[in-house]
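To close the section, here is one more complete example, presented without commentary so you can practise reading it yourself. The ligand is zinc ion.
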Amino acid sequence: MAIKTIFTEPNKILRQVSNPVEHVGKEEQKLMDDMLETMYAAPGIGLAAIQIGIPKRVIVLDIISREKEKKNPLYFVNPEIIWKANENLTYEEGCLSVPNQFAEIDRPKECHVKYLDYYDKPQLLKAQGLLATCIQHEIDHLEGVLFIDYLSKLKKTMIIKKLSKQKGKSERI
Ligand code: ZN
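Output:
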């Protein structure tokens, strides 16, 4: 396993639409292992392959390991939301590609997701609460969408300006 560099906004890579995976084999499993290690090291609770520059429809999540000692990684290949609740949930979201920025975002509070697991087996997950929010956030990455895209133009511009400044500083060191 290896820790990869996480790309941060503004960066064109994050705006790419990721490609479906034909078959979950050794290469994809290694990618998921690397993604998970990168996510835990960050630390974060979700990561999409495009955040480390790989345009494949692959995401990893672990929303409970922060509270509990035991790790509980979830792997999703070609995830597709097949049902969404009408009711929304508001959650203060952040993103490893939008460092140190947080904003309240509304998303459907429940969703059903169809996907292939780590072993190429088709699965269906009925997610609610934080898990539903995270899955939707990560699937957005596969479409080149970031949570700041849901904010007003003014707020989004302010965040991107701040991130550009931070980037300028860290690149000078
Ligand atoms: Zn994110």
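Once you have examined the tokens, check your reading against these statements. The two ends are 28 Å apart (CA to CA). Residues 95-97, 137, 141 surround zinc ion (CB under 6 Å).
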